[in-house]
What we know:
By secondary structure, chain A is an alpha/beta fold. Chain A is built from 15 helices and 16 strands.
Amino acid sequence: MNKQTIDEMVIGKARLARAGMRKLSNLSSEIRNNALETMAEAIWEQREQILTANQIDLENGERTDLAQPLMKRLELDQQKIEVMADNLRQVAALPEPIGEVSRMWERPNGLRIGVVRVPLGVVGVIYESRPNVTVEVVALCLKSGNGVILRGGSEAIASNSAIAEILQKSAATFELAEAIQFVEITDRKAVHSMIGAHDQIDLIVPRGSQEFIRYIMKTSDIPVVGHADGICHIFVDQDADLEMATEIAVNAKTQYVAVCNAMETLLVHRKIADDFLPIIQSSLSQLEVELRGCELSRSICADISPVTEEDWRTEYLDKILSIRVVDDFEQAVDHIERYGSHHSDAIVTDNYASAQKFLKMVDSAAVYVNASTRFTDGYEFGLGAEVGISTQKLHCRGPMGLEGLTSYKYIIYGDGQIRT
Amino acid sequence: MNKQTIDEMVIGKARLARAGMRKLSNLSSEIRNNALETMAEAIWEQREQILTANQIDLENGERTDLAQPLMKRLELDQQKIEVMADNLRQVAALPEPIGEVSRMWERPNGLRIGVVRVPLGVVGVIYESRPNVTVEVVALCLKSGNGVILRGGSEAIASNSAIAEILQKSAATFELAEAIQFVEITDRKAVHSMIGAHDQIDLIVPRGSQEFIRYIMKTSDIPVVGHADGICHIFVDQDADLEMATEIAVNAKTQYVAVCNAMETLLVHRKIADDFLPIIQSSLSQLEVELRGCELSRSICADISPVTEEDWRTEYLDKILSIRVVDDFEQAVDHIERYGSHHSDAIVTDNYASAQKFLKMVDSAAVYVNASTRFTDGYEFGLGAEVGISTQKLHCRGPMGLEGLTSYKYIIYGDGQIRT
């Protein structure tokens, strides 16, 4: 298919999603929640259909030598489908994200002005191989009153089509089918049609590898909110409780290495480096973490290999940690500002002033005192489901939940006011 | 100068602004407010210096045949400088926009999580000929703790340089000079250096003509929030008080035609068109407004000229009004959705259900019942000074005041929590 044909098809679907969104915006939250419950049931009841489709994708994956981690993400079973259904029910049970009038005030001329939460409009989601993303995203978008247009990767096309069809059919019983659009075109051009459709789509959410997300951010004409790099730091201050510091650092590095809120760099205050480095080196070595450190750290611990400038900027997502001994608090904050990705950074300290100063000076989505960076997560924060974690500062920052899928408008009640 | 040299200069200035911002973020609001007061004094005391520089710009403008409206915007006098000084004082007196912890909660594991307002970082402002923008923008950015990098148009370069120098000197007494950076390069390439500096600048605010703003929005690598088109509608419902409808429509169209919240299209319910059109036609003709209408409106009022499809999409900013008779409420809402710019739209009605439905269904930054669209304005809404009015849905919508120049971060107080 040529680009123009693909453009027309994608834009046509985005227009339908917008029409569907306008219907949605007039429905009660009860109906939207009922639709989500019905979808949960349908997904579970028609699991065989999904598993059959998934088999096709898996066979294709084997034939095309798809990498093992991708195969694993692609593969569905009854349990994973049960999780999908649960996910729909959980999102249905979340507090209503739209319609809330957060403030309302009266002006001297009698105008009453209110600020009300509204859906963003149409959300375009571009993702790679995990079919459960289809369900998660549809759930969050419908709950927040948005139309959604989905474009999954070619590896999962059969699974995603099957899931999308089931969701659409359930939605149809509530006259909501239009609000869910699935782009079945696996040609990469379809991605470009989506990120160019700024009249029809209000927000692009990319899901997948960092490389993929960066590419979408760079090329999209439409605002993008995406799960970004996490180069997270823990600064062990001179006044740290070293036992607590060890527990937190080990947790942040090793509890789950392949996630964005894992620690990648440990900063150690010079005054406690002689005491702390041998302890942490011993704990992390037992867990098979490779340590790369600055000259000073290597003069204290022989088992640390040399670090490069590139290491400070690297999200390892692996059992590797870079270590720097810093002269003082300021050097630690400067390092975080210079090399960090403004995701999650922590200080371990018993000093009140250092704690408060760190919270104030470090400009990251989540800034911690005496806790592991691994808590940066919608569920852990108590915010419910999340679309991802944003390290950008506009629109939404940190865990992006339902509120990130909303905007607001001003509503004004008058009784004939004119401006003089 | 070649592009590389300009890039280096602009990026150098943006880096300084960021360093200045980091200092600012550690200062009390008292000091920031004192700096604004000191700037107000300095602007007034050194008015002769500003007027002398302005004279140079005016002479250049005459020599280069600058259009009269631009000359008028460029020209300064004592009174305009007094307004600049007042502006600085007013912004100083506004409530503190940063540092507020809007929510704080405790998790079952004892973590205390708070959401705190923080500055965006470095704001890049690109504007055309009005020198007072230099003052307004510096005031709003300093108040909200942001570094700012300004690039004014070549027509006002002498005036802007003089103003920027005075502001920087005042800021220097508070060690804040770095936070205010002024790009003196009038080469258009400097604009491109700014909108490409995504590592140094967090937000671009363009001020000037619609054409200019659209150009910046299209080409910037950095998020842009800009004052956008206003194609505003008033829908006179079948249950409208026709006297109120006339007052509101006349006000929204004629009180100030060259602004984004003026009405451009009047939608009239078919059932009252025979009564209402002659009244509004008579009122608006007296005020020399040209009426362009649909077939049906022309069959009722002979003095209405034919409207084209293009008219519905046009922001006249002039004494012209397009008129459409609609069959019903739905057709009115569809028209607004299809042709409007989602800025400000109003219904005039005495019907409770129609009022509520309009507020719900119309997806614009400001949706009115029984009031003129002319109220969409930071001051009129009681929000204080504004950077502009946003018709986008992400980050900030409607009048963009100090809050639009802020972001938030999560601060987390722990006592050793790790994730299990």
